[in-house]
Structures are given as structure tokens and as C-alpha cells.
Amino acid sequence: MALMKSPKRLQSLIEEGLIDTVVRQLMSGKEAMVYVVRCGDETRCAKVYKEATQRSFRQAVDYTENRKVKNTRQARAMAKGTRFGRQAQEEAWQSAEVDALYRLAAAGVRVPKPYNFCDGVLLMELVADADGDAAPRLNDVVFTPEDARAHHATLIREVVRMLCAGVVHGDLSEFNILLAADGPVIIDLPQAVDAAGNNHAQRMLLRDVTNLQDFFGRFAPELMQTQYGPEIWALYERGVLQPDTPLTGLFERRTGPVDVGSVIREIDDARDEEAARRLRMQMARQPLS
What we know:
The chain is 41% helix and 16% strand. It has helices at residues 11-15, 57-64, 72-80, 83-106, 145-164, 201-216, 228-237, 260-285, and strands at 21-28, 32-39, 42-49, 114-118, 121-125, 167-168, 177-180, 183-186, 193-194. The radius of gyration is 20 Å and the shape is globular. The chain starts with 10 loop residues before the first helix and ends with a helix.
């Protein structure tokens, strides 16, 4: 197997002995480059975060609400948008994914196992298919109705397990779930939010569940009638949600006065989400290097 030249950002990990060789580039996205690497006898992947990312201000505010920072100086700089503040914000964005991965892996959620985080590089498990190759994303796979129902059920249970661990993914869709040999694995968690500390957590969880419903509903249309999101959040708010809590997919909505501001916000969010979805689809069509 021919090996590629080691990228500059991975050189320090090679010098530290965390990586032996770089095999190939796996993915290039807006926020990071992912490489297949060899570590001793194991094949892993290295996620190299880019120096700067393109995220809308409102989205960043929603996702980072109540995130902890190291000190008040850092918080002030982030609020002012200074160069130091932008760097601090980027570091917080990266560490959020690292923290979420360790937290969720410990809770038994199907996420890649994290190994190390060094110099802006996250070293983690390579999610593989039955042949040992890098697993495909869900959006690259066509499912039978039976498989769609099974994978949807698995992922709804993972959403519950994440919420019980206090985490909402915040951007869950067919573009950041891999189909491993033993089932779906959830990836890309820099935007993960604290379920109890973020006022947007409920909206994000409902959107995550709707994304799963919309995708798998293409193959099993009856899933479009389910109401797992509201059911899960209602159980969570009542303090009775457990990883193995039985779910029905049914939910009776309460009627009451309409919050016009909230409705407008939902319309704006839907518009932003559609724009983001189109961008992800465009990026997904780009050939890998």
C-alpha cells in the first residue's frame, strides 16, 4: 500500500509517536480534514480541524450558549470577537466535540472511540464496514423498508441514550452517521449542546429526530407519522427518561396560545437548515482526494 506524504498538521503527532504513518485522506469538509492513519497494528483516523470555520453568528450563539470557557478574559475576548477571542472560540468548538465523544463513549453511545486530542487533531477509531474499509455515510446507502425501520429504531435509541447523558447532537442527519459493519455510528459532534444548560436544546433534539424520520421515511413511509421527538423530550422534562424507556412514537400535542416569535424563529431555523442541507449535499458529491 502506497503511503501519502504526512500533512504538516500531523507531524507533531508522528514525532510524539501517536501516529506511525498516514495512509490517505478520507474526507475534506468545511471544518476539518480527516485522514486514515496507522498506529502500531491498528488503523485509525485523524481529524484535523481547520484554522477557521464558516458558521453563521446566530448558529454559533445557539450552539455555544452556556458553554464553559477557561476564564473571564477569554469570555470577554470571545464576546468582542478579537483575534484572541476567535482563537478561543475555535478551541472551545473543537474541545466540545472531544468532550462529547468521551462523555458519550462512556455512556455506551455508538460514537467513534476517541484516543487522543493533540495540537488541534482528534485521533479516534476508524469506523469500518464489513470489509474493513471506511464505512459509508447513510446518505450514500439505499435501504430496504426492513433495514430502514431497524436502523431508525437503533438511532432513536441512541438519541435517547445521548439525552440521558445530557447531550443533544444538534446537527444529526444522514450526512453525519456512518453505517458500520454492526450498524449506525454517530459522528461530527462539535456543535453538541448541553441538554439542561442550553435553551435551544429542545428545538435541536426535535430537529435531529425529524431529520432521522425524513431520511428513513423515504424507505419506510410509515415512519413519517411517528412523533418520537416530542415523546422523548416530554419524558426527559418529567425526569423519567432512561436509556431503555419504552417508546411508542405517539404523542398528543397540547393546544394553547401561539407564540408568534417562536413560530418566526422556527421558520428562520428551517430556512437555515435547508441551506445547510443543500451545502452538505453539494460537498457530498465532491470526489475524495
